[in-house]
Amino acid sequence: MDISVRKLNLIEEFLEISDEKIIEKLESFFKSERKRTTETNINPMSLDEFNHLISNAKDDVRNGKTVSHNDLKQIVRQWK
Predict the structure, then answer these.
(1) What does the angle CA 15 – CA 16 – CA 19 come to, to the nearest 5 degrees?
(2) To 10 degrees, the CA torsion angle through 46, 59, 72, 70?
């Protein structure tokens, strides 16, 4: 059974639930799983990586590879 079918089956099961406590438990489970997954996927950078990014940013400023705050606001307004 592929994941799309499994999701649809879960949705059907969920729609049949009438006990609010079960829904609260499911909400709590989903929230804790999202938090755990997010925390697991966050990998702190090393000090060398951090210093390399700082160095690159300083080079960008020296070489004029920056955009002012006002220019960026104008660019974003054009996205709409």
Answers:
(1) 105
(2) 120
pTM over 0.85: no
In sequence order, the 6+-apart residues with CB closer than 8 A to the CB of 53 are 45
Confidence of residue 44 (pLDDT cuts 50, 70, 90): confident
Q: How many CA atoms lie within 13 A of 70 on its CB side?
A: 0
Q: State how far the Cα of 42 lies from the Cα of 8, in Å rounded to an integer.
A: 30
How far are the Cα atoms of 7, 13, 39, 50, 56 from residue 47, in angstroms, in the given order? 42, 48, 20, 5, 14
Q: In whole angstroms, what is the distance from residue 70 CA to residue 80 CA?
A: 16
